[in-house]
Amino acid sequence: MVERLADVIPMEFSSSLAQTENKLETVETKEGSDWIAYHKPKPNASIRLFCFHNLGGSASMYRQWSDALLPEIEVLPIQLPGREQRLQEQPFTDFASLIEILADFLSPYLDKPFAFFGHSMGSYIAFELACVLEKQYNLKPIHLFLSGLPPLSENAWLKTLLSISET
């Protein structure tokens, strides 16, 4: 049985309720948000593909995907705070808060079939976000693509992290 990441990754990072509330205020409407970068709207697309970058990366790694994929697929690269045009923003230090805020932000975009693609750390985000969306909104991605990540059951990094948190 696969455990939810938020249940197994220790959340002992420095994050306060005030920081979370401030981040929630920045999650506005579709217009004016920096969460989605390099987006080329495709109004006739039948699927939205949300892409989550790796720890040291940014949404620009998905910049060319919209042109490379079928016209039926609208690519929405997610840009985390502390990257590229969001460099001046405080990066998240609490994984669970990030997932909750992303779930709230993405919910208006989930009005048609959607899929998640995550690479490396982005795979953790995509996986956990899929779990939260199912639990809170009764929504599931039609596909969940996890790249650059061993299966959670075989993930030595996660096992090491858990063993450190137990000491």
Report a brief summary of the structure.
This protein is an alpha/beta fold.
How would you describe what is shown here?
- The structure is a single chain.
- The chain has a single domain, classed as 3-Layer(aba) Sandwich (Rossmann fold), CATH 3.40.50.
- With 167 residues, it is α/β, with parallel strands linked by helices.
- The chain has a four-stranded parallel beta sheet, with helices on one face.
- Strand 1, helix 3 and strand 2 form a beta-alpha-beta unit.
- It has helices at residues 5-8, 17-26, 65-68, 95-106, 121-137, 156-165, and strands spanning 47-52, 73-78, 114-119, 143-147.
Q: Rg from C-alpha positions? A: 16 Å
In CATH terms, what is the architecture? 3-Layer(aba) Sandwich
Q: Helical stretch count?
A: 6
Percentage of residues assigned to helices: 25-40%
Mean pLDDT over all positions: 74
CATH topology, by name, is Rossmann fold
Low-confidence runs? 1-32
| Beta fraction | 5-15%
**CATH homologous superfamily?**
Alpha/Beta hydrolase fold, catalytic domain
Strand order of the largest sheet: 2-1-3-4
Order of helices and strands: HHEHEHEHEH
Classify the secondary structure makeup into a structural class. Answer: alpha/beta
CATH top level assignment: Alpha Beta
Envelope shape: globular
* Total individual domains: 1
Number of strands: 4
For this entry, what is the oligomeric state of its chains? single chain
How far from one another are the termini?
25 Å
The biggest sheet, with number of strands, parallel, antiparallel or mixed sense and barrel status, is: 4 strands, parallel
